[in-house]
């Protein structure tokens, strides 16, 4: 199992009035971590469109929050694929503070969708080589 990891420093604007991370930011960080993994593997969204004429839209997301994270703290967001289906794959996320405490978990189900000439998306089988390229990349 390949795990990709990204470090993030919590900014003032990431926090709510109580001084803790506002929950939608976790979903933003999950997506940013996935996008960083794609870039590390040479598979940015532009490359997916150019090489595969495809994108990977979200079809389901979720998160569990276990401990608060506050301004100016560094976190590690770790992601790996836990399930590959013909047309979808599941990414599981773990977020740790720098003391190693698990502060949140989450998941994303992403579909593989071809971009049709008129711009619509149509579900398709995951392209040959995508999985190997993604899982063959190294962490940042």
TrEMBL record:
Q: Which UniProt keywords apply?
A: Hydrolase
* Pfam families recorded: 4HBT_2
| Family of this protein | Belongs to the 4-hydroxybenzoyl-CoA thioesterase family.
Q: What is this protein called?
A: Acyl-CoA thioesterase
Species assigned in the record: Alcaligenes aquatilis
């Amino acid at each position: 199992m390949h795990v990709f990891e990204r470090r993030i420093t919590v900014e003032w604007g990431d926090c709510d009035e109580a001084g803790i991370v506002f929950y939608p930011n976790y979903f933003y960080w999950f997506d940013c971590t996935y996008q960083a993994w794609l870039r590390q593997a040479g598979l940015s969204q532009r490359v997916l469109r150019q090489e595969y004429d495809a994108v990977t839209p979200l079809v389901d997301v979720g998160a569990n929050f276990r401990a608060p994270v506050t301004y100016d703290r560094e976190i590690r967001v770790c992601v790996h694929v836990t399930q590959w289906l013909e047309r979808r794959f599941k990414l599981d996320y773990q977020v740790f503070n720098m003391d190693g405490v698990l502060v949140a978990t989450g998941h994303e189900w992403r579909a593989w969708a071809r971009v049709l000439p008129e711009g619509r998306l149509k579900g398709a089988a995951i392209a040959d080589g995508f999985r190997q390229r993604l899982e063959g990349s190294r962490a940042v």
